[in-house]
Amino acid sequence: MTTLDESWPVDSPAGPRDVLIALRFADRAARKAVAAELVGTGLHTGQELVLAKLLHHGSLPVAKLAKVLDVEVPTATKTTQRMEAAGLVRRVKNTTDARRVAIELTDHGAELAQTVQDIYDRAGSRALADLSPEDRRQLRNLLWTLTTTLEGDPRD
């Protein structure tokens, strides 16, 4: 029998608990791979997600940024303050309501966001090296199905 290690027979039934445990370990391994790639960029783990979201969405109010990152507003506020001090993001006032501010990338932040994309490409390529393009497509679709089943549509 083929195994991933002595305690994980790959041909055994995959109950709900087994799948979620495997998913948690895969998530941890992915985070570690990205963290290793971030060394030398000046970014702390988690900040790369802020850059990626701002690159994708453009400027966002802190509350909306917190929602897309799935963190509390105070956490997003503290993170963006640190990133602003590092010159990665800036606050921009709403033209119709000066009390409302949004966060957007600086030129340096946009450059680093592109670096983050490269980091995710490298880490992802290593993670998926043994999967065919069809396996990758199926895995992506299955992961999005799990996500939407567990917490609703992430695009909301």
Describe the protein:
- By secondary structure, this protein is mostly helical.
- Helix content is 61%, strand content 8%.
- The protein contains six helices and three strands; from the N terminus they run ααβααββαα.
- A three-stranded antiparallel sheet has the order 1-3-2.
- Helix 2 packs across helix 5.
- The longest helix is centred in the N-terminal third of the chain and has 23 residues.
- The chain is elongated, with a radius of gyration of 19 Å.
- The termini are far apart.
- 15% of the residues are buried.
- InterPro entries: HTH_MarR-typ (IPR000835), MarR/SlyA-like (IPR039422), WH-like_DNA-bd_sf (IPR036388), WH_DNA-bd_sf (IPR036390).
- This is HTH marR-type domain-containing protein.
- It holds the Pfam family MarR.
